[in-house]
Amino acid sequence: MTRTRFALTGTSEQDTKLTTTSSRGEGGTVMRIIVPLQGVVQGRGGLFLGSVIPCALFYFLQLYLKRHRSAPSTPPPPPKDAAASSYQPSSSEGQLPEVSVLSRSFSRIHPSPKSPGGPAYVSSRVNLVLKGGDSPYDIGLRKVSEDPYHEAGNPDGVIQLGLAENKLSLDLVRDWLAENAREAMLGGGRNGEELNIDGIASYQPFDGLMELKVAVAEFMSQVMEKAVSFNPSQIVLTAGATPAIEILSFCLADTGNAFLVPTPYYPCFDRDVKWRTGVEIIPVPCRSGDNFSLSITALDRAFNQAKKRGTKVRGIIISNPSNPVGNLLNRETLYGLLDFAREKNIHIVSNEIFAGSTHGNKEFVSMAEIIDLEDFDRNRVHIVYGLSKDLSLPGFRVGVIYSFNENVLAAAKKLTRFSSISAPSQRLLISMLSDTKFIQQFIDINRGRLRGMYVKFVAGLKQLGIECIKSNGGFYCWADMRGLIRSYSEKGELELWDKLLNVAKVNVTPGSSCHCIEPGWFRFCFTTLTQKDIPVVMERIRKISETCKYPS
Amino acid sequence: MTGPRSPEDYEPESQARKPAGATAMRLVVPLQGVVQGSGGLILGSLIPCALFYFFQLYVKRHRSPRSDSNPTLPSQSSSNLTELPRSSSRSNLSSRGSIGRVRVSSRASSIARPNDSPYYIGLDKVSEDAYDRFDNPNGIIQLGLSENRLCFDLIEKWLSENLKDSVIGSDGGYLSISGIVAYQPFDGLMELKGAMAGFMSQVMGGAVSFDPSQMVLTCGATPALEMLCFCLADPGNAFLVPTPYYPGFDRDMRWRTGVELIPVHCRRTDNFIISISALDQAFNQARKRGVKVRGILISNPANPVGNLLPRETLDSLLDFSQEKNIHIIADEIFAGSMHGTGEFVSMAEVLDSKDIDKTRIHIVYGLSKDLSLPGFRVGVIYSFNDSVLVAAKRLTRFSSISAPTQRLLTSMLSDTRFTRAYIETNKKRIREMHDLFVAGLKKLGIECALSSAGLYCWVDMSGLIPSYSEKGELDLWVKLLNIAKINVTPGSACHCIEPGWFRCCFTSLSEEDIPIVIERIRKVAETCKSSS
């Protein structure tokens, strides 16, 4: 049939159009001109070209189809094809092989579902999730959950220093709950009883109750020492900061886009930002020489490299107070970041979940405060917060998106259908957060205890000759154990981590899990301990550090 | 953009394939031969154009499934390599202009758009002006949300007796406080899974028992569905869904996953029960379009019709899925909200009695309907597939249930005396409301499809619509919403192929409201009849 078409093309312009578009000529050829690439064949190229060109075309099409089918999630790579077909000479035929390949590819799909005994496949993207659970961070957590240390019950168990959880002030929360839980959940006698059950059992707005938003806004500004006020209508509540980050990643970037993230960063960003969204993280290394503080030059370099690779950078994700280092971003850096974001026209996601857990004497500055003072374009700034750290309620799963961008708020509100907070917990928190006397007391006492533990823990490490980066916030310290690793490499670091976990039985987070570029750094979370546990931990680390110093 | 690459690129390729012919090359212009031939310049330019046109056509068709679930992808991907550098330079440019507005992702902007489905428009409207017998008697009455308020008194009574102990424990000790405020497994407490398994089997009349280790708890059935969709299908793949179906599926299954739903139409002549031949036809059509079908999504009891899938249908669904090697997601969230005489058969029960590869079966459940606790946000994935379970457990980090709620529910569901009484009373009350409501409609000459479960009935108002079309149906829906001030769900929102059907949820009403609703419908019905 191809021949026919070509035979006809010779005659006139109209004919060509007609036949090529109908794409299904009847085969009534009588002409001498029966070879597909008539023109070429009659030209200098001769028979060879006439056969090679369609072959090549066909080859490219197959290549295209194959790639297209094997990885449906990645965007189809047409360039080769486009190249081949757009310029391909005589090939109105080019389009014909295409048709034939198409039907063949179907027949190829065909047999696989027919085969009766085949297992039911899961999606290929979920393989990423299935493979994702084996980082040292996860292995350590699993180990602890199998054999947790208990002073009396299991003194040989693994001590948890790998999870940023604060258990220092649970007694305060417990006392409050014991006194108020019932009234908080069902409400007092003021409203009719029926109204109260209605408020927890029936459908509530997915993005959180307005009362809770008001209370959270108040709490956030209290935690940040009244330097900023937050507008409840810019708040979206989610089931933890984890989905808050994922929702922002969905809203700010498309599949294949990227975020710049200064390293070392919180190990779970890799899941929260990337897993389901198809978004990339580009690590921007910070170094011990700068006290792991962020430099705009490094950001700029990473941005340009990404651009060269063809990756679109849609934003920067920062943690302030940073996790795992625990330092604070100062005002100048925040201004620098904003300028950078504006210059590149990208977003800033500022994770301020440890804002209230500062223990040093440096001042915490929220991105919201900078935005308030300056008349920047605010649409690009999004703050993530939560009650898991500052109110030590990770079990409640309460996260906050605070954004100045209408579109992001609208989309995030709709997406909270997948991550909403249980109404009884919301009611309970409304009462708890509205009890300002309790909250103020909690913040003060908690800060005092946090500082006490930090000082003790860092002093303990110092006695062993292990220095920590000077930090001002967070439940952890960032310890320099470069002197204890056998080889200055990721391998050496993981060997030490393995010894700490299996011999000393303390679970810590190695820097490589946080994408730290320099080996030998470890994150120690000290807030799940009691004061009495510190000597035990130090003793265990000491034993390891002694064996490590010997060989080197 | 493509020109410079091609000659050098394909030449060696062709040489490689046919090394024999080493012809003296004079081929400098791509279409040299043609150009020099009789067609001349015109052909030389026309042919590549036509070629390119067909190529684009092909690419477009090949990708169309994805574009409809996510309108942003095509432009993005079709331009992949050729346009990328250009697009990045474009973003660069706008950033230089100092007041460039920062853009959100294209998938977010499609989600952020105002609702266009009548289902959500109606819900929004009610939330602005909700009916209240005393405070707002002219407000809109909600018949569009399947929520059960008939048994709140039972729940309230239980809570007032047990709340404090169930949340913090009776001794208020250190251990129990750390059990609610500290990090818990994201996929739910084992105690709650155990209690949930017991409750599910109780709800289903003890016909099946559920294994807590095959269970993953999520914050609502909504994320349970989305999670399964993530686990079973890749972007561009599809699920077959018998229509009419629950309007929320379009959001739950498609929004973030890029998966397509292929409606498989059921008709009133079959009592809206799915036929395997229709499924087969839809499967083959999808295959012809190049769309890979990864599973079937059924709801049983069906939402919005309220009928039950008979054992034989479940049986043949299993065979069908086996034959095509696809998954089945069975949404059984209304399993305990029965009001008729039909027998509910769970997919898990059919599976028990059959020698079949179970790894393709996934059941979704939740407490929003059967225990009328939608505010608690508790959903269940019950799967026989280990990979799906492992992946879903990891994904629950994004959708986990607040621990106080879990503690509370653990004691509530473990109190089997309470749950048994609750289930019985609830069924009785739904039946009474159903009978009252259907009788009221019947007096107006409006019939409902036969149903035995659910918090709604599926009402045939095809006699009242001005034209037998989707437009006629939506006209009537607008009248009901704005004149009669009742919010119902039109069949078109559920992708029903026959116009004139409406879903009316009656369980958020009280008995006294029914005459008011019927009266409001009567007024509209009269104007419709007289005008026609």
Automatic annotation (TrEMBL), chain A:
Question: What PANTHER family does the annotation carry?
Answer: AMINOTRANSFERASE ACS10-RELATED (PTHR43795:SF85), BIFUNCTIONAL ASPARTATE AMINOTRANSFERASE AND GLUTAMATE/ASPARTATE-PREPHENATE AMINOTRANSFERASE-RELATED (PTHR43795)
Q: Name one GO molecular function term.
A: L-aspartate:2-oxoglutarate aminotransferase activity
Major enzyme class: lyase
SUPFAM superfamilies, A to Z: PLP-dependent transferases
| GO biological process terms held by the UniProt record | amino acid metabolic process; ethylene biosynthetic process; fruit ripening
Record bears the keyword Lipid metabolism: no
- What is this enzyme's EC? 4.4.1.14
Q: Which biological pathway? A: Alkene biosynthesis; ethylene biosynthesis via S-adenosyl-L-methionine; ethylene from S-adenosyl-L-methionine: step 1/2
Which positions are tagged coiled coil?
Answer: none
- What protein am I looking at? 1-aminocyclopropane-1-carboxylate synthase
This enzyme catalyses: S-adenosyl-L-methionine = 1-aminocyclopropane-1-carboxylate + S-methyl-5'-thioadenosine + H(+)
Keyword set for this entry?
Aminotransferase, Ethylene biosynthesis, Fruit ripening, Pyridoxal phosphate, S-adenosyl-L-methionine, Transferase
Species whose genome carries this gene:
Juglans regia (English walnut)
Instruction: Please verify whether the record's keywords include S-adenosyl-L-methionine.
Output: yes
Q: Cite the InterPro entries for this sequence.
A: Aminotransferase_I/II_large, Ethylene_sulfur-biosynth, NHTrfase_class1_PyrdxlP-BS, PyrdxlP-dep_Trfase, PyrdxlP-dep_Trfase_major, PyrdxlP-dep_Trfase_small
| Aminotransferase class I/classII large domain segment(s) | 159-541
Tell me the protein family, please. Belongs to the class-I pyridoxal-phosphate-dependent aminotransferase family.
Quaternary structure, per UniProt, is: Homodimer.
Superkingdom of this entry's organism?
Eukaryota
From TrEMBL, chain B:
Biased-composition ranges, Polar residues, are 67-82
UniProt region (Disordered), positions on chain: 64-100
For this UniProt record, give its keywords in alphabetical order, as a comma-separated list: Aminotransferase, Ethylene biosynthesis, Fruit ripening, Membrane, Pyridoxal phosphate, S-adenosyl-L-methionine, Transferase, Transmembrane, Transmembrane helix
Reactions accelerated catalytically: S-adenosyl-L-methionine = 1-aminocyclopropane-1-carboxylate + S-methyl-5'-thioadenosine + H(+)
Q: Which residues cross the membrane?
A: 40-59
Q: This chain belongs to which protein, by name?
A: 1-aminocyclopropane-1-carboxylate synthase
Q: How does it assemble?
A: Homodimer.
Q: Recite the lineage of the species.
A: Eukaryota, Viridiplantae, Streptophyta, Embryophyta, Tracheophyta
State the species of origin: Juglans regia (English walnut)
